[in-house]
UniProtKB/TrEMBL annotation:
Presence of the UniProt keyword Aminoacyl-tRNA synthetase in the record: no
The protein's name: DUF445 domain-containing protein
Pfam family, one: DUF445
PANTHER family referenced in this protein's UniProt entry, alphabetically: UPF0754 MEMBRANE PROTEIN YHEB (PTHR35791:SF1)
Organism: Lederbergia graminis
Keywords annotated in UniProt: Membrane, Transmembrane, Transmembrane helix
Primary localization: membrane
Family per similarity comment: Belongs to the UPF0754 family.
TM stretches of this protein: 6-31, 353-377
Subcellular location(s) per record: Cell membrane
Coiled coil: none
Source lineage: Bacteria, Bacillati, Bacillota, Bacilli, Bacillales
């Protein structure tokens, strides 16, 4: 009886050793040996191991698996349109935005970080260049055209309609001037100048009328003449005639003495004083964005996320195709050393591989038990 038990126990141990060792060797032969082994010119069977032998095919199939079933346009589209993902991205972008503002960078420093040297000088040069370009562009466009071609028709009509009002204003100012003491003195001076040029006539007038009396007589008459309706009509006709002449002139004729350099210098100075570029570029960005910070966080960042999500969702297939994900996966796996690939697989499935080895031992032991029982009954 003891001999029978020892025989069965021996066969169980041998079966377990064979089963466990067989599975262990089978697992190892997935990776080992890394290179084919030759005896003379004869290649030893099962060398190299399965994965080293099929390394390139494995890389290709995994690449196809990733593109065809894992990183697909639908899966990526579903991810980027997921509400939880969008909310997390909003929180992340807001935190990054606030963190960036805390650095107190100025626009000048930001441009320098972007490899833009001397940003203030370059910005001023750029603005001055644009001013000159626009100035000479406008000048070339309108220089040889008549004023009536340059000014919009509705403007010329409005100016034409304003001529009577302008005449009223001129007459009003003239009456106001000649009614003043300064105007009276001017009348007196003009009369004296007129009569002095006529010799004896001036002496006769002085003898009978006197300088002041003559000015007193002319002043109301001049004012009366200015207020006369005929005077206004005459002035309106003169202004209309002059306006028509001006419209027929070219821009070059109207601004014949124009100095381009002085005009450009004035425009550049005005723009520089208005924009104050140096002050803006040296002001912290956070200070410039304070009035808009809440709007950026609540409106602009969600808008950017929505726009980017829509863009990616519509073009994700093309993007993945251009990224050549399958080729990237294949190249990465092909670049792995066989030892590293083995370590990677074993580290992921270590427990399962050990269990497969143990399962082989258990099955081998069970087979040994069955064989031992059969031997006892047949002996």
């Amino acid at each position: 009886m003891l001999d029978s038990l020892l025989l069965i126990l021996f066969m169980i141990v041998i079966g377990a050793l064979i089963g466990g060792l067989t599975n262990f060797l089978a697992i190892r032969m997935l990776f080992r040996p890394y290179q084919p082994i030759y005896i003379g010119k004869w290649q030893l069977p099962f060398t190299p191991g399965l994965i080293p032998k099929r390394h390139n095919e494995l890389a290709t199939q995994i690449g196809k698996l990733v593109v065809g079933h894992l990183v697909t346009p639908d899966s990526v589209r579903k991810k980027i349109t997921n509400k939880d993902f969008i909310e997390k991205m909003h929180i992340w972008l807001t935190a990054k935005f606030n963190s960036w503002l805390e650095k107190e960078w100025t626009i000048e420093q930001l441009l320098e970080q972007l490899q833009v040297d001397n940003p203030i000088e370059r910005a001023n040069t750029f603005i001055d260049g644009r001013i000159e370009e626009k100035y000479y562009g406008i000048k070339d466009k309108f220089w040889n055209k008549q004023i009536q071609e340059v000014i919009p028709r509705e403007w010329t009509q409005q100016l034409q309609n304003k001529i009577p009002d302008a005449a009223d204003r001129i007459i009003e100012k003239a009456v106001e001037y000649f009614s003043s003491q300064e105007g009276k003195y001017k009348i007196k001076t003009m009369i004296e100048q007129f009569l002095k040029d006529r010799g004896k006539l001036w002496n006769m007038v002085q003898m009978f009328v006197g300088n002041d009396s003559l000015a007193d007589k002319f002043q109301p008459e001049i004012i009366k003449m200015l207020k006369n309706e005929e005077t206004k009509l005459m002035l309106v006709q003169v202004l209309q005639s002059e306006w028509e002449k001006i419209q027929e002139k070219t821009t070059e004729e109207l601004f014949v003495n124009m100095n381009d350099e002085k005009i450009l210098a004035t425009i550049k100075l005005t723009v520089a004083d208005t924009i104050q570029l140096k002050k803006i570029l040296q002001t912290p960005i956070s200070e410039l964005l304070i009035p808009y910070k809440e709007k950026i966080e609540t409106n602009i960042i969600p808008f950017i996320l929505q726009t980017a999500g829509t863009y990616l969702s519509d073009r994700i297939g093309e993007i993945l195709e251009r990224f050549e994900v399958e080729a990237i996966v294949r190249e990465q796996i092909e670049s792995f050393s066989l030892r590293k690939l083995e370590e990677l697989v074993i580290s992921i499935a270590k427990k399962e591989l050990v269990m497969i080895t143990y399962l082989g031992a258990v099955l081998g032991g069970a087979i040994g038990l069955i064989q031992g029982i059969i031997v006892l009954f047949t002996s």
